[in-house]
Amino acid sequence: MTNTEEFAGLILGGGEGRRFGQPKAFAKLDDGRTFLEACVATFHGAGASPVVATLPPGTDDPGINGLMAVPLPSSGLDMFASIMVGLDRLIEFREWEKAALLPVDHPLVTAGAVTALLDTKMPAAIPSFRGKHGHPVCLDRDVAVGIVEGRYPGPTLREVLREVGVVDVEVDDPGVVANCNAPENLRDALKIRTAD
Question: Which domains can be identified in the chain, with CATH numbers?
Answer without folding.
Answer: 4-195 (3.90.550.10)
